[in-house]
Specification:
Elements (H helix, E strand, L loop, with lengths): L1 E5 L8 E5 L9 E10 L2 H7 L15 E9 L11 E4 L2 E2 L5 H4 L10 E2 L11 E5 L3 E3 L6 H4 L2 H14 L7 E5 L4 H12 L3 E5 L12 E3 L4 H9 L4 E6 L6 H6 L1 E9 L12 H5 L4 E4 L5 H12 L7 E6 L3 H6 L9 E5 L3
Parallel strand pairs: 10-11, 10-13, 11-12, 13-14, 14-15, 16-17
Antiparallel strand pairs: 1-2, 3-4, 3-8, 3-17, 4-5, 5-9, 6-7
Helix pairs in contact: 4-5, 4-9
The structure holds zinc ion.
Amino acid sequence: MKAAVVNRPFGLDNLSVIDVPDAHISDDEVKIRVAYAGINPVDYYIISGLNNVNPVPHIPGSEFGGYVEEIGSKVKNLNKGDRVIVYPRVFDGTCDLCISGKEYLCRNGGIVGGITNGGFAEYAVVKYQNVMKIPNNVSWEKGVSLPIAGLTAFHALIESGIQPDDTVVVVGASGNTGQFAVQLAKKMGAKVIAISSKPWVKELGADEVVNMNQALNALQRVNGGRLADVVIDSIGSKTVGRSIKLLDTGGKFVTFGALTGQTASMIISEIYSREIKIIGVTGGTRRELSRLIDLASRNEVRPIIWKVFSLLDIKAAISSLFSRERNGRILVKVSG
Ligand SMILES: [Zn+2]
């Protein structure tokens, strides 16, 4: 089969599409004929060797879906040809975190496509526990946008404890997760101020689309001058300080990404004197992904797609994550 493979020394220059032997499946595994994959920053980190990478040479690709091709002897409730997406966390189901319903934090886990081979290939093999069916009315473009982009945003909003009529600021609203955070926060009854330079973000239902410098004025209009209850910020160093200033007393700063840098300084008294809460999130649960599939099948959430590349153009697909012209999601179409 054809697959995108990265080898040491890691980096985009050492990613190429080559023929590799088909993987065999064990009793509890499922082989998927990959239809589409989503491109996310995590793929870039894995290809660059910044995350745990196993095996090497390695097939990256953490967000994907396709048709069930073959099932192991212990696999139930799946049939050849089923349309499925892949829950992107490896988990053992037995550690204390798995038992408490936090399988995305499994002590013996990691990211599919990071600590296992992933979906930038004609076929991928995953544990049956990671496979979730999607209805026929959920397109591949939509389906493969749920496991990372959709799920991270959904989980972030749930962990923020968002209440109806709260005011949520989404920083980086045109990004993979930002798009979903805007739509889902609206569904959850919040007023949403989207920080973005892209006018189309308004189509996602944001009450206001403004740049960071206009955010206080937007809060004035939307919230009568009261500051935000929740700020969702996956941008990193560049925005953290200003994001925290947008929060009302008792407000929550939610972070799950650091595209612009890992470190930031903050004024500590601003945090404690106003009881600001800082909430880190990563991934989400299978239950949350299943709820997202339902929302997508009712057309209540959708991604804005910018470009669809072929598997042969995987390098260009990943490079374009950092394009200034980027206007929505980047996907890879592997088969139909
Ligand atoms: Zn576990």
